[in-house]
Design a protein that fits this description.
Blueprint: E1 8-10, E2 12-14, H1 19-27, E3 41-43, E4 52-57, H2 65-70, E5 77-81, H3 88-91, H4 103-119, E6 125-130, H5 132-144, H6 150-154, H7 160-172, E7 174-178, H8 184-190, H9 195-206, H10 211-214, E8 224-230, H11 241-251, E9 256-262, H12 272-282
Parallel strand pairs: 4-5, 6-7, 7-8, 8-9
Antiparallel strand pairs: 1-4, 2-6, 3-5
Helix pairs in contact: 4-5, 4-7, 8-9
Length: 283
C-alpha cells in the first residue's frame, strides 16, 4: 500500500443512500460542535448505490486520504474527513497538544457516524480502520458500549437511544482492522528511548483507551470483524498479536472474528491478502 497509508485510519460502508442523497448528507455536516473544519468529502464509487467507505486518516494525515483509496479502483463511495490533529507535521503540533488517546480524538468520528445513522436513518454501517485508525475504531465502539464518556457523547447528540441505534447498525455491518495499533504499551516496550511517544502512551493509559484493553468492552455485542496483521510489522510491531486475537475472540464470542496474517512488504504497503477478502464482499 502506498506510503500515504501512514495517514489512514477508518472506512465505513453504508447501503441505504444513493450518491445524490449521500452527497447531500455529507455537504450538510457542519464543523460544529468542533472548533476546526472537519472537511468531509465524498468521492463517487462505480455505481449510484455503491457501498460507502468512511475513511478516517491517521497520524499526520488529513481528508485527502480518500483520494488515495479512490485511486485503488475500489467500487465504493469514499468519505473522508479531518481529525483534530490533521496535517500535524505541516502545522507543527507538539505531541503534548495532540488528542491521540483522548475522547476528543474520537468525538468527530462518532459525530459523523451519528449523522449518517441517526440523522440520515442508515440502518447498516461497516467500518474500516488502518493502524491508529484501528485503535480509534475499537475505542469508539467501546465508548458507545460503555458509560465512561456518557456526558461527552451527549454533548454531540448521542444519548442512550442513539447509542443503541448506532451499535445495532454497526453489528449489521463488517468491521475491518488493517494492521491495527494494538496498544501504546507494545510500542513503548521496544521504544523506551522515544520521548516523543511517552506523553501519548500515558494519555491512552490514563484515559482507559488502550485498544487492546478496550476489546474487553465489546461484550455482549455480536460483531463481524476481519483483522489483518502484517508480519513483520515495523510500525505497530507484532508482540501482542496473539493476545489481541485471544481477547477479541473472547469478548466477541457472539459474533464472527476472522484473522489474516500476511507479508506484503511492510506496514504501509498494499495488503493484498486483506483486500482480496474484503473487496468481493463489497461488490
Amino acid at each position: 500500500m502506498k506510503k500515504f497509508l501512514l495517514f489512514l485510519l477508518f472506512p465505513i460502508y453504508l447501503f441505504s443512500l444513493d450518491i445524490v442523497e449521500l452527497q447531500k448528507t455529507i455537504s450538510a455536516i457542519p464543523p460544529r460542535p468542533f472548533k476546526y473544519d472537519l472537511s468531509p468529502t465524498l468521492l463517487q464509487g462505480k455505481s449510484r448505490d455503491a457501498p460507502v467507505l468512511l475513511c478516517l486518516h491517521g497520524y499526520g494525515g488529513n481528508a485527502s486520504i480518500g483520494q488515495v483509496l479512490h485511486s485503488y479502483n475500489l467500487p465504493h463511495h469514499i468519505i473522508s474527513f479531518n481529525f483534530p490533529d490533521h496535517s500535524l507535521y505541516e502545522r507543527a503540533i507538539p505531541n503534548k497538544k495532540t488528542t491521540f488517546g483522548t475522547i476528543q480524538e474520537l468525538l468527530p468520528f462518532l459525530y459523523i457516524v451519528k449523522t449518517l445513522i441517526i440523522d440520515s436513518k442508515l440502518n447498516t454501517i461497516n467500518l474500516y480502520g488502518f493502524s491508529a485508525g484501528g485503535a480509534a475504531l475499537i475505542n469508539g465502539i467501546a465508548v458507545l458500549n460503555g458509560n465512561l464518556y456518557k456526558l461527552e457523547l451527549e454533548s454531540i447528540g448521542i444519548f442512550s437511544s442513539e447509542r443503541q441505534q448506532i451499535l445495532q447498525a454497526i453489528q449489521k455491518g463488517t468491521i475491518i482492522l488493517d494492521a491495527p495499533l494494538k496498544s501504546m504499551r507494545e510500542l513503548m516496550r521496544k521504544r523506551k528511548e522515544s520521548g516523543s511517544l511517552r506523553d501519548i502512551a500515558k494519555r491512552y493509559e490514563t484515559n482507559k483507551l488502550e485498544p487492546i484493553d478496550s476489546l474487553m468492552m465489546l461484550s455482549p455485542l455480536a460483531l463481524d470483524v476481519i483483522v489483518y496483521f502484517e508480519v513483520p510489522d515495523e510500525a505497530v510491531l507484532n508482540d501482542d498479536d496473539d493476545l489481541y486475537e485471544q481477547r477479541l475472540r473472547e469478548y466477541n464470542r457472539k459474533g464472527k472474528t476472522t484473522f489474516i496474517r500476511g507479508s506484503s512488504g511492510g506496514h504501509l504497503e498494499y495488503h493484498k491478502e486483506l483486500w482480496e477478502r474484503v473487496i468481493p464482499r463489497a461488490v
